[in-house]
Write a structure and sequence with these properties.
With 285 residues, this protein is α/β, with parallel strands linked by helices. It contains 11 helices and 8 strands. It has helices spanning 13-24, 36-56, 61-69, 94-107, 123-128, 161-173, 189-205, 211-222, 228-235, 237-251, 260-268; strands at 5-9, 28-32, 71-74, 85-88, 113-116, 136-141, 150-155, 177-181. The protein has an 8-stranded mixed β-sheet, with helices on both faces. Strand 1 (5-9), helix 1 and strand 2 (28-32) form a beta-alpha-beta unit. The longest helix is centred in the first third of the chain and has 21 residues, at 36-56. The radius of gyration is 19 Å and the shape is globular. The mean pLDDT is 97. The structure holds acetoacetyl-coenzyme A. Residues 49, 52-53, 56, 119, 142-144, 146-148, 189-190, 193, 225-226, 231, 235, 239 line the site of acetoacetyl-coenzyme A (CAA).
Length: 285
């Protein structure tokens, strides 16, 4: 299985990052989103990220221009028809992901591979909403995609060895290191990361410390690049809540109960960096 063309469904923070690293690795990339505004924003984010890499001397101006030129943007998922591997990177919502896989089954060539960038939802269930469960994989990228080394791979119940090998090779061509997780809610990364973040929110709720004390304790005390509340704002509080709901519902253990404070922030629309306010406030971007 030779992967040359990669499709990405969703131009948001994960989708545009995946498009960038795929184009940087020499793949021909097509990105679709339902809203033109999201595509424009996605292109802006890619240009901004490439600008930072040029400034740092990681790549030169010509390479950055080449990467931009290898990405096509559009609102019609039929643009993925000839994609060899189409990666869904939409919002972490079960019904939406099922709908996208039903749609891609109609639009994408039968021999092509489909992947989901879900961070917690069952890959087996998503695959069952496609016409080719054997050719579906979980491909979990980390944010910010251009900087983070890892892609966590998840095989669904039906995923074939050929699919796994081809997707692993594509991730490695993008310069990433892969790990393999069983298809259990949250996989490896979020099974461990999200309860940690949720506990930090609960510590704030219980008044154990201020947001600064909680973040500084973990940042300086455990050498992580961001404190857990800053990281939650960076990921998006709606995404953190959605993942906790999947862990809680899927594993049925009360230890995964989302903090009531996390729920309140999401109800208020305080979703973190992307909405300008979460545990901290951010300037409009
Ligand atoms: N593209 C290109 N370059 C970027 C970039 C981007 N998107 N974002 C940051 N950079 C560059 C900056 O230009 C900067 O370059 P210099 O060092 O040359 O100045 C460098 O990266 C560091 O950036 P900053 O100085 O702005 O900030 P920082 O030192 O805090 O680093 C960070 C930023 C890399 C994001 C770092 O804070 C970090 O690693 N944070 C943790 C990220 C993390 O845990 N991600 C996983 C989240 S979980 C997930 O994604 C999965 C899920 O399912 C929820």
């Amino acid at each position: 299985m030779n992967i040359v063309r990669i499709g990405v469904v969703g131009a948001g923070q994960m989708g545009n990052g995946i498009a960038q690293v795929a184009a940087a690795a020499g793949f021909d990339v097509t990105v679709t989103d339902i809203a033109q505004g999201a595509l424009d924003k996605g292109l802006g984010t890619v240009k901004n990220s490439l600008g930072r890499l040029v400034k740092k001397g990681t790549i030169d101006e010509a390479a950055a221009a080449g990467i931009v030129s290898r990405i096509r943007w559009g609102t019609d998922t039929a643009l993925h028809e000839d994609g060899d591997l189409v990666i869904e990177a939409a919002t972490e919502n079960v019904a939406l992901k099922y709908k996208i896989f039903e749609d891609l089954s109609q639009k994408v060539r039968k021999s092509s591979l489909l992947a989901t960038n879900t961070s917690s939802i069952s890959v087996t269930a998503i695959a069952a909403h496609s016409d080719r469960p054997g050719r579906v994989m979980g491909m979990h990228f980390m944010n910010p995609v251009p900087l983070m080394q890892l892609v966590e791979l998840i095989r669904g119940m039906a995923t074939t060895d050929e699919t796994y090998d081809a997707v692993k090779a594509a991730a490695e061509k993008m310069g990433k290191t892969t790990t393999l997780s069983r298809d259990i809610p949250g996989f490896i990364a979020n099974r461990i990361l999200m309860p940690y973040i949720n506990e930090a929110v609960q510590a704030l709720y219980e008044g154990i410390g201020t947001r600064e004390d909680i973040d500084t304790t973990m940042k300086l005390g455990t050498n992580v690049p961001m404190g857990p509340l800053t990281l939650a704002d960076f990921i998006g509080l709606d995404t953190c809540l959605a993942i906790m709901e999947v862990l809680h519902g899927g594993l049925g253990d009360s230890k995964y109960r989302p903090s009531p404070l996390l729920r309140k922030y999401v109800e208020a629309g305080w979703l973190g960096r992307k909405s300008g306010r979460g545990f901290y406030t951010y300037e409009a971007r």
